[in-house]
Structures are given as C-alpha cells and as structure tokens.
Amino acid sequence: MCVVTEGSDPGHGRVMRAIRARRNVRAFSEESIDPSVLKEIVDAARHAPSSMNDQRWAFVVVTDPARLSAISKMGTWADHVGRAGAAVALIVPDAEDPSERESIAFDLGQAAQNLMLAAWEKGLGSCHATIEDGAAIRDLLGLPAGWTCDLVISLGYPADRSILSASPRTDGRKPLDEVLRLERW
Ligand SMILES: Cc1cc2nc3c(=O)[nH]c(=O)nc-3n(C[C@H](O)[C@H](O)[C@H](O)COP(=O)(O)O)c2cc1C
User: Phi-psi region for residue 183, left (φ > 0), alpha (ψ -120 to 50) or beta?
Assistant: First the structure.
C-alpha cells in the first residue's frame, strides 16, 4: 500500500510529501506485517549513504512478541516496541575514537530515516526506541563481540490509519525562519 502519492500539499513532490507527513507512531493495530515488506524496508536502510561508503551497520528484524516485549523494557520510552508488529534493531560496530563514533551515528541516522520513510510508503508507522540496557539487548539478539545496539525502530500498521495521510503538525517543527540562515549566521 502506498500512502504518499496523495497529500494536502499539491505544490510538493512525492518525496517532500513523505518527509513532511511522516511522524512517529506509537499506537499500532494487531495486523501482522508480511516478511517481504520488512525485507524491503531494511533494503531501503542499507541504501543510505555512509562515510567512505563504509556501511558500518547491521539490522536485526524482530517479530517474536516475547522478544518485542522484552525490548520494550530496555528503555524508558521503549514501551511502544511491545505493541509493535515488528522492530528493527540498528546495530553498529563499537568504536573507541569519538570522531569515528560520531561518523557512525551520523550514517546510522540516515539509514534510520530511509527505513522510516520506506515504512511510511508501505502504510506502516514507526517509532524510535532508545535502548538503555545495552547488555540485555546484546544478550537477547545474540550480538557478536564488538557490536552494539543503542536504537530500535518499532514498526506496525497504525491503530489510526488516518495518521499516514494527515497534514503535518503545525506545531511539530521549528519555523523555517528560525533555523535557516542565508550566506552567514
Ligand atoms: C535518536 C532518537 C531517539 C529517540 N528515542 C525515542 C524513544 O526512546 N522513545 C520514543 O517514543 N521516541 C523516541 N524518538 C522519537 C522522537 O521523540 C520523535 O522523532 C520526535 O518527537 C518527533 O516526532 P514526530 O516526527 O512524530 O513529529 C527518538 C528520536 C530520535 C531521533
């Protein structure tokens, strides 16, 4: 199902409409997600650009309700994972060097955005969950030494599907004038 061809902003193209309409969804229906859809969404993530094209990432798809429930307890604001149809754990290699850590995090953010926009196009809502118990998720997902998971993205068909094609929240982002400077600060 594609939800981004329609929109309330006729002046915008499909990509711009998806960027503006996508929002974090934390209430999901019971409908299960086809494995092929999950695969396509992860495929979108791996197409993200990365520094030197290093692609320092891996993705673990979780659909087992008991695992999702366990993950939902690993972060203060991770409860939505327990209500999701699936979750994608974003895995990165450990890095000692702060600039390397920053570079990996930047790349991962782009992969996450690809993943969430692809989910949106498929009619799925998504939400980040910051993982605070690194040891617990490493154990649950069987991560090899040297790999870490700090973020999980929950996925599911929204309980209220109208959210997929609603107008962007007017108060949702800082005004353009506040963040845009021309030529110099
Ligand atoms: C790095 C990062 C971590 C986040 N962690 C959580 C989280 O633990 N739980 C949660 O519910 N939302 C989390 N979010 C989602 C933000 O709260 C959300 O993107 C923001 O409120 C904007 O929401 P909107 O896109 O629906 O307007 C996180 C977002 C980012 C980028």
Answer: left
User: Cα angle at 63 between 61 and 66, to 5 degrees?
Assistant: 125
User: Cβ neighbours of residue 67 under 8 Å, at least 6 residues apart?
Assistant: 140
Tell me which residues have their CB closer than 6 angstroms to ligand 1: 23-24, 26, 75, 77-78, 80, 127-130, 169, 172
Under a CB-based contact definition with an 8 Å cutoff, are residues 29 and 83 in contact?
Answer: no
Does pTM top 0.90 for this prediction?
A: yes
What pLDDT, in 10s, does the model give residues 87-122?
999 999 999 999 999 999 999 999 999 999 999 999
Is 87 exposed, middle or buried, given 0-12, 13-18 or 19+ CB atoms closer than 10 A? buried
> pLDDT (tens digit, 9 = 90+) per residue, 11-56?
688 899 899 989 999 999 999 999 999 999 999 999 999 999 999 9
β-strands 86-93, 58-62 pairing: antiparallel
CA of 38 relative to ligand 1 center, distance in Å: 21
